[in-house]
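INFO  loader      accepted 1 record
INFO  loader      residues=362
INFO  predictor   begin
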Amino acid sequence: MVKLTRREVLKLIVAGAATATFSPLLHARARYPTTESLPPQPGDNDASADWTWMGRAIYRVNFYAEPATSSERLTTRNRDEGFQLLKRVHAPRSAHNDLWYQTPLGYVHSAWVLPVRVYPPQPFIPNVGEWGFWGQLSQLYSTARTAPNPQAAKKYRLIGGTVYHVVDAVQDEAGTGWYKIVDDYPPRQINYEWVLARDLRRIPRAEMAPIHPFIGNKRLEADLSAQQIDCYEGDEIVYTTAFASGMAATATSRGEKCVLLKQASRHMCDYPYPGMPEEEAEYATATFDLPGIPWNIFFDMDGTAIHGTYWHNDFGVRRSHGCLNVPIEAARWIYRWVHPVGGYEDSFIRSNCNVGTPIIIF
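INFO  predictor   done
INFO  writer      dumping tokens
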């Protein structure tokens, strides 16, 4: 979605060198509607948890009597309004995306609906430990504030599925629990915000454990024409997902690359900040400001990455600023599968092409 500054990525990479509940979306382009239920998928360590698939309207969306815009329009929902997701339905819509959702309100096309695992209010963890823990927003959205107080200034709207490093916990005068989370923008300095503890789920270690860590012959192939990633172990494809690559002006570069850096959470932003170096200011066009982007896998010196996406759900077409946008659940799987292997407490997992999984973009 965004390019990190060359200096920032170089610093991280050189330091390293020195030392599906939603299964992948294949976009079958079915001629007639086909349906799929929404159970937890094999390999999902959170399969028994008490959560519900909900849809968040990214923008205003329409609901229809059938999975077709020619059918009766039943109702609409505005931005940030939620609704339960019952089934996935494949039916003709656009050339690249035939995915619809069946809901109690009718059928809605997937492009501007973010699927979110919504949990009951989470228990407050008063002692987060020396390092803290990784937390995932477990509601459709919440608010990051400048202090642990409901009257404190709002900093960001945090979206369901995004990931944050929790470093402290306090209770306000009313006894409400708050978590202090790290915000890594602007770069090269540490900032903090506060979010209601009930809205942030602690990610268990098992959900970040490596997948097939002792398989050495891994590679990832990204086909820009098909907008599809295939994860290989030897000659076997073990995982596939659609993606959204760079648009014409910010096209994703082709070639043989590798995993250079992994981050569970990244604030991606192109807004200028005080003291921004001149060589970076040319990229500061103030077009996006996205905290908590989950499951980032950086693969070149410009800071281009495969990462989870919450500002659209329309994969199979070029939409990004150069990165490979994938669904959040797909990004989580790929993050856990690729080398290098890291620990739970690693904010940065650095690598080089001797260790990092090869990524071939063509």
